[in-house]
């Protein structure tokens, strides 16, 4: 007997065949009209039509005719753990105050670094829990979390330890990435190589305590060069970590090409990726993680060339880039709308980019982002009639229910509630 049997008007069943979907594969989305999914002991035990499921026995049957059922969403690029907030900077940006001037006034990333250094570990945990609760209500069941607001040994480790604790106590699976090389701190100004060596010295502790699976670096004009980033990431790979890169967000420096060359799991942002970089990306296994919310919030007109990437044969994923400075949102549903309007992605490509491909971008392609018999039951029931509706109807939360490992963790009455989840 099943524990739970859910009948829905449409069930999304993404197909991955053990790898991220590339190029034209991204426009292929499998679904079942008038479908059903059965859960037993926390895993998926049945997927099929409502007619096939009619004779099945279950302790609980949920009739959701006219609603959509999908895998839990995956958010593969966030900066979850940080202190403070930067709402005061929005007015400065509206007045046209340049970012460098905001930095000079003590704002920008340095403001968040200061706040994160000064915030106790338990307070960072409570704040992270608040944001995770909100992400869960938006349908996210797996997500990545980067450090990078410490820029010193003590605070970077503090962020990673908080992320590990959140993973252990919150229903959302949190995959940690060490982004110590997020910026050059004031005390290392003019000495970026020395700072990178200090960050590399943390890898043994991070590995020993199991604090991160991936290592990331911000490769951009005024931060770290392509060559510095390459050396840094190669040393991280040698130490046993998967590697990622913030690349070509503003200038086409060649970070995309380098990421593919060294076998990075993902290259993120890529707004300024060159045509050659896009071509090479399409021939590599590196996944492009695109962050249209950041471009939108910064008021930029030029978005990442998603259509060119998909045409080249690349695998594309989407993410919120949730952070306090350039994309303060936990709403991955809104990112799906931006992907349609600004990246010109189809509904099918968008769904694959927030499920299958997003899971592979953080090393979870075998357990998240798809519905398969035997997999854990991470499911979202949506108050929408079909998968095309969510990118279309923007600015609201369409979630009705969320199951994590077969357990109902969000019900209709919980949406937007400020609550503490039991574990």
UniProtKB/TrEMBL annotation:
Main location: cytoplasm
Keyword annotations: Cytoplasm, Histidine metabolism, Hydrolase, Iron, Metal-binding, Zinc
Record has Cytoplasm as a keyword: yes
InterPro entries: Amidohydro-rel (IPR006680), HutI (IPR005920), Metal-dep_hydrolase_composite (IPR011059), Metal_Hydrolase (IPR032466)
Biochemical pathway: Amino-acid degradation; L-histidine degradation into L-glutamate; N-formimidoyl-L-glutamate from L-histidine: step 3/3
Cofactor binding remark: Binds 1 zinc or iron ion per subunit.
Ligand binding (N-formimidoyl-L-glutamate): 149, 323, 325
Residues the record lists as binding Fe(3+): 77, 79, 246, 321
Entry-linked HAMAP family: HutI
Functional description taken from the UniProt entry: Catalyzes the hydrolytic cleavage of the carbon-nitrogen bond in imidazolone-5-propanoate to yield N-formimidoyl-L-glutamate. It is the third step in the universal histidine degradation pathway.
Family of the protein in this entry: Belongs to the metallo-dependent hydrolases superfamily. HutI family.
Protein name from the UniProt record: Imidazolonepropionase
Source organism: Fictibacillus norfolkensis
Gene: hutI
């Amino acid at each position: 007997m099943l524990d739970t049997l859910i009948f829905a008007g449409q069930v999304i069943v993404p197909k991955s065949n053990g790898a991220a979907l590339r190029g034209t594969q991204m426009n292929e989305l499998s679904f079942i009209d008038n479908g059903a999914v059965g859960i037993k002991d926390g895993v998926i035990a049945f997927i099929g039509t409502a007619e096939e499921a009619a004779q099945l026995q279950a302790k609980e049957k949920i009739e959701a005719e006219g609603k959509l059922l999908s895998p839990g969403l995956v958010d593969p690029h966030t900066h979850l753990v940080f202190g403070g907030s930067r709402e005061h900077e929005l007015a400065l940006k509206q007045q046209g105050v340049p970012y460098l001037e905001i930095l000079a006034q003590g704002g920008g990333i340095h403001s968040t670094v200061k706040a994160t250094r000064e915030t106790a570990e338990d307070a960072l945990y409570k704040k992270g829990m608040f944001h995770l609760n909100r992400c869960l209500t938006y349908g996210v069941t797996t997500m990545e979390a980067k450090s990078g607001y410490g820029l010193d040994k003590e605070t970077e480790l503090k962020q990673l330890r908080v992320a590990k604790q959140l993973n252990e106590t919150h229903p959302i699976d949190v995959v940690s990435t060490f982004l110590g090389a997020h910026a050059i701190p004031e005390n290392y100004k003019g000495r970026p190589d020395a700072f990178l060596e200090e960050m590399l010295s943390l890898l043994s502790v991070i590995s020993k305590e199991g604090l991160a699976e991936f290592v990331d670096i911000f490769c951009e004009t005024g931060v770290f060069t392509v060559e510095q980033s390459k050396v840094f990431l190669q040393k991280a790979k040698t130490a046993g970590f998967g590697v990622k890169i913030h690349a070509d967000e503003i200038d086409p420096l060649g970070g995309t090409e380098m990421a593919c060359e060294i076998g990075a799991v993902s290259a993120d942002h890529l707004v300024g990726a060159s045509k050659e970089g896009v071509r090479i990306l399409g021939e590599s296994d590196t996944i492009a993680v695109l962050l249209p919310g950041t471009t939108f919030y910064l008021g930029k007109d030029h978005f990442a060339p998603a259509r060119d990437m998909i045409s080249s044969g690349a695998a594309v994923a989407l993410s919120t880039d949730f952070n306090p400075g350039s994309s303060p949102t936990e709403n991955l549903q809104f990112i799906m709308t931006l992907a349609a309007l600004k990246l010109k992605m189809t509904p099918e490509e968008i769904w694959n980019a927030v499920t299958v491909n997003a899971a592979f971008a953080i090393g979870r392609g075998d357990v998240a982002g798809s519905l398969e018999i035997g997999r854990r039951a991470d499911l979202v029931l949506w108050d929408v009639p079909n998968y095309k509706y969510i990118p279309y109807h923007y600015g609201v939360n369409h979630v009705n229910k969320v199951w994590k490992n077969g357990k109902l963790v969000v019900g209709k009455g919980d949406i937007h509630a400020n609550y503490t989840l039991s574990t």
